[in-house]
Amino acid sequence: MRYLPLSDVDRSNMLAAIGVASVDDLFADLPKAKRLAALPKLPPHAGEQAVARRLGTMAAKNTAAGSVPFFVGAGAYRHHVPATVDHLIQRSEFLTSYTPYQPEIAQGTLQVLFEFQTQVARLTGMDVANASMYDGSTALAEAVLMAHRITKRDRAVLSGGVHPHYRGVVETVTRFPGHVVESLPPDLLGTEDILAAIDDTTSCVVVQSPSFYGHLYDLKPIAEKAHAMGALLIAVFTEVVSLGAIEPPGSQGADIVVGEGQSLGNPLSFGGPYVGLFATRQKYVRQMPGRLCGETVDADGKRSFVLTLSTREQHIRREKATSNICTNAGLCALAFSIHLTLLGGAGLTKLARANHANAVRLADELAGISGVELLNRAFFNEFTLRLPKGAAAVIETLAEKGVLAGVPASRLEPNRPELSNVLVVAATEVNTDEDRAAFASALREALA
Amino acid sequence: MIMNNVGRPTAPVATDAVVAASTFTGNQGLAIEEPLLFEVGRLDVTGVDIEDVDAFEPRLGGLARTAPIDLPGLTEPETMRHYVRLSRQNYAIDLGLYPLGSCTMKHNPRLNEAMARLPGFGDVHPLQPLSTVSGAVELVAELGRWLLELTGMASVAMSPKAGAHGEMCGMAAIKAAIVDRGETRDVVLVPESAHGTNPATAAQLGFRVVSVPARADGTVDPEEVRKRLGPEVAAIMLTNPNTCGLFERDIVEIAEAVHAAGAYFYADGANFNAIVGKVRPGDLGVDAMHINLHKTFSTPHGGGGPGAGPVVLSDRLAPYAPVPFVRFDGEGAAEFVETRKAAGERGLKPFGRITAFHGQMGMFVRALAYMMSHGADGLRQASEDAVLAANYVKARLQDLMTVAFPERPAMHEVLFDDRFLEGTGVTTLDFAKAMIDEGYHPMTMYFPLVVHGAMLIEPTESESKASLDQFVDTLRHLADKARSGDVDAFKAAPRLAPRRRVDETLAARQPKLVHQG
Q1: In this structure, how many other beta carbons lie within 10 angstroms of the beta carbon of residue A17?
Q2: Domain carrying residue A368
């Protein structure tokens, strides 16, 4: 077996050194009656070619996003990732290292995390950021729990523009400790009155902008009302590239900013692994979940980095920890950071503009089709259409025509028949004029 | 010296500076210092050529960004150097033996990386029409089948993002099952040697944690469990093999007692790699167990993630699995159940959703490639080799270093304590840091908390005998050196790493988490 260096001779010699007759003696504590002699239902070992053939066959059954005109978003976005990113994250020293618990031999990972934290804080307009979370949805759930710790209240208000999966995660995670989540109905038109839902029992208000339906919200009045009531504003985004074009949540008064960072550096990969971004105000640092990297010095006085404030964490605090989390999304955070380093603020601005331009053109092209209604006035690279018939059937028809046309809202909100004709569509810099034309023409045919 | 609450020094003691060759640049040959991105990048530079777009009327509704983004950029060659130089300051499995107990730093096969990057896996969207991703669903189902076969369990929830997330998933299923029974059980039993995530998870779900002490041989005494069982107990969370590297030999008796008291048995699967193909948790009475794909099935640790923590469930807990999940019918055909509505139509009662989308697909591909490569025979052999390696290290060190629980066979890892350093002035931390100068990553230190100055060594099955011998010889040399009274050398270590000991106390007292300026 190509991955196992010990030979049978080595094994015999090692057993002799240990002083046992067979390897089974080392498993003597396993209950005899339960021990397995073999795994008869599983195949034997296989060479690289055989494994690659088998997995290649499975992969070939899927329609790769890059092989068709592609407009699917709703929380995960297809962007061009420079080749440099994937090369660098496969460096052995990044790929095959552990959590940097020994800072003297992990300064590479630690400096990357420190740079990542700084990038995320600057991008979101916040004071500090952590070293990343599993993904945007779990980052949001942790943000709500953090708000409850800070305010000592337990009633969160969620905008109807928050991604339905994100709402599901928040509702699940807060239900067990008995917290209350007031979820507003889906905000299809971007016109909900969230201010009316905030009162002096509210722990936090959660607003996603751009929203699941693509709407952009002015967070400032929401922050004002929340703060006046002693509540926190949690701002969420699923498309981090939007921060290259719109006012960052930090300068709109958000207290905690969370989001999905997949768009930078990370492939779609059928939903994971992704990278959750988490930023907040300096005064809340000690209530933050997740790993944090801080600057310090070594014994020679040289600038160094080290994981810090671990007294918040489970391995020290156990049942009193701020969270049970003990990993970040290290390699995905590295990919994010490298991509953002290549872009810089100037490149991100340009990238965001290219996304917005493509989306505006596509929205106008599709809205020109008879029976199709564009539901957004303002949007970034994603918008919502109301079709004259069921969106789920339409995207299947378009898929048969070789266009992956977006996400029917009913797939995520199956209990809301009023959303059955609603289609969420994303356009990014990867879409060409021909892609948009193919979409428009296929949709026209499907609705004819 | 400043210590934390488990007796671990957090700030370096003053030692003589190492005299290194003085250079103009501060670099030392191939060891090149790298400034922060924010010190070398420029605000007007970008390393990505993006085409200009034709003029258009923006539709940002008055929310357009007004201030430029304060993020410096680098061109491609500068980016490459920045990160390659940083990478060289890291230890890695590909560089050497990485004996971190409980972390399972085994070889990460590169075939797995290539497979995860096939466009049919890496470039598919989680919300594409299901008709366009049948191969992706097939892969998730196939991995699920392997996991069920290896664990002997009824069902699997694939979406947890990491081990601790899996714990939350499994314990939430237990909570949902208890609520469904109309009960209010709220106590979870956790052995003292457990990972910190276990009590943290239980507390996060609103359970009260009651600790179970270990007996003298390092394992859990069924009598101590029985004493604590009662109508208020919801579950026990047990790691097996436990964090002392020992198999909980009374596990069947414990499971029976737990079930007889109406409670559930959660197994922390962090150490499943020791027993794959040797015994199945389902046959031992386990109701739920997360599987760290990044430990047992070799998906790369990546400097701290991403992980992946699918949870296998017994029949009793299967109906409560969170969406989405793959479900198998009697013939083994797979069905992808994505919403609570769809689950409800099938008579299931999912407790909710714990992440957006479907889980760590990229890790699923890697783990399945690992399993298919090893096969039934290779997986068993890997477990045996891992256990053999740990026992070999134990056998060759036990005369010089003190094994914490010598009477039981070690499993995949062996736990030493610091009795062998008594009177030398050298601490576990000093010993570990001296290993760095010898070219090794230290073992897990000061964990588990049940022994003093713990050193937990997990060599894994990826090491050749020559590599194990060199490692053992090095530790023997260091143990001799400590006993010979050469304390200063230990206190000054590491001398040869990119950094010497760092001041953790300073970092925590005045947290500097982002670069200013």
Answers
A1: 15
A2: 69-81+345-447
